[in-house]
Amino acid sequence: VGVVRISGTTTVAVATAVLGKLPQPRHATLAPFLDGKGRAIDRGIALFFPAPHSYTGEDVLELQGHGGPVVMQLILQRCVELGARVAQPGEFTKRAFLNEKLDLAQAEAVADLIEAATASAARSAMRSLSGRFSEEMRSLVQDLVGLRTLVEACLDFPEEDVDALGNEDSGARLEGLRAGVASLLDRGRQGRLMRSGLHVVLAGRPNVGKSSLLNLLAGEERAIVTSVAGTTRDALREAIQVQGIPLHIVDTAGLRETGDEVERIGVCRAWKEIEQADAVVLMADIREGITATDERIAAQLPRAASRLWVLNKSDLVGRAPLREETQRGVTLTLSAKTGEGLELLQQELLRMAGWHGGEEDAFLARERHLEALGRANGHLAAAAEHRPHAELLAEELRLAQEALNEITGEFSADDLLGEIFSRFCIGK
Ligand SMILES: Nc1nc2c(ncn2[C@@H]2O[C@H](COP(=O)(O)OP(=O)(O)OP(=O)(O)O)[C@@H](O)[C@H]2O)c(=O)[nH]1
Ligand SMILES: [Mg+2]
Predict the structure, then answer these.
(1) Whose CA is nearest to atom 27 of ligand 1?
(2) Separation of CA 194 and ligand 2 centre (Å)
């Protein structure tokens, strides 16, 4: 079944022409869909949702026909003849936002739900879509407005006895707000992980077992493994999930100086991958330990990437899997061949990603949300610093609110004025 959906003021005219008459609102109506000459293009279910009780808040008609591309095209064409036009990407949801059916964060959650790559990301998007996150935002903003009301009243009416600044209460309220924003920021970062995951590059000298480790993580034989040093040439990518967190694992060519041209290109590519990594797993053969060459490789890793040392082939020396924190950083002992230590590695990768297992609280934040929350956080910190200076305090609070309001897309200075005057009867 394919659906043609029409929204807007032309909907009634289109419905009447295509169906012969306007279907009963919110009822499934079986009807022929007619072309310009009154011939049936298809016969299917029509659904009519009069404004404002529809997804977009406008008149909406859905024509469910047989989903063949030609049939769908003919129905679409007929609608266009009757004055409709083809929608722009996201236009239905955009209209829903403009008509206040959804706020901005919810509108974004629609896209996130559609694009979700894992079940937990989908659940998280659904929580945002249902407005749980927006409600939290709104309640934070409400607290912020409450505090601003106090502070601004102090500024505007100094003769009134509103002791906001010396007031213990305002300090506690500010701290409460900061805690709220910090929590949202943390949970948003968790959500970002659920959405985009972590890019992990496996690096090290040839033959240490990088490809074997990729295969172990992937749970299948993806990369070629041989005892020949320099087996892997091209970077090989594998997307896996650990506890619902997507991990993008890249196996690379063993890093060494080489006369072989193809291998040299591979090493070059390996470095390119390393430069873009969120995390680098630096592997070594436990029989050799970490050598001066490995240290030199480590020194060339980008600073922003977190790193993990892995001593592989523990089976060959009869060692049990182990996690150690050394001066070099965290070092795992494991065997890519037997799989011993796999769980340690998975846990460590999640830890490096910053995941602390809060799937239920996480919200699928976008960069925009995190950026705005980060800004709000900064302004609230500055507000705490400036607390004795009412003007500065007021300004930082205003900026914090502006940042938060960007998230749900409902910034308006009038909101604040309304709040102030509805709460204080200062006109006396
Ligand atoms: N016993 C044992 N052998 C291993 C282990 N991991 C890898 N090997 C062996 O080591 C050899 C090299 O493994 P690869 O996974 O191809 O190593 P690589 O780091 O990808 O090598 P290049 O692609 O050449 O850089 C193969 O013969 C593997 O079977 C391990 O944990 N234990
Ligand atoms: Mg390899």
Answers:
(1) 227
(2) 28
Q: Mind listing the pLDDT tens digit for each residue in 120-138? A: 888 888 888 888 888 888 8
Least confident of 90-94, 121-125, 164-168, 206-210: 164-168
Distance CA 337, CA 410 (A): 55
Contacts of 377 (CB under 8 A, 6+ apart): 178, 181, 182, 185
- Tell me the C-alpha distance between 406 and 86, whole Å: 29
pTM above 0.90, yes or no: no
* Euclidean distance between CA atoms 231 and 215, whole angstroms: 14
In the block, residue with structure tokens 């172990």: 216
70 CB-near residues (< 8 Å, 6+ apart): none
Q: Could you tell me the pLDDT band of residue 417, with boundaries at 50, 70 and 90?
A: very low
Mutate to test the pocket of ligand 1, among 201, 205, 207 (most ligand atoms within 8 A of CB): 207
The pair of three-digit structure tokens given for residue 353, joined into one six-digit string: 């990603």
CA of 374 to the centre of ligand 2 (A): 40
Residues with CB under 6 A from ligand 1: 206-212, 225-227, 229-232, 253-254, 312-313, 315-316, 335-337
Determine the Cα–Cα distance for residues 63 and 224; give it in Å rounded to an integer. 51
Q: Measured from the CA of 229, which atom of ligand 1 is nearest? A: 24
CA dist 247 and 222 (Å) reads 15
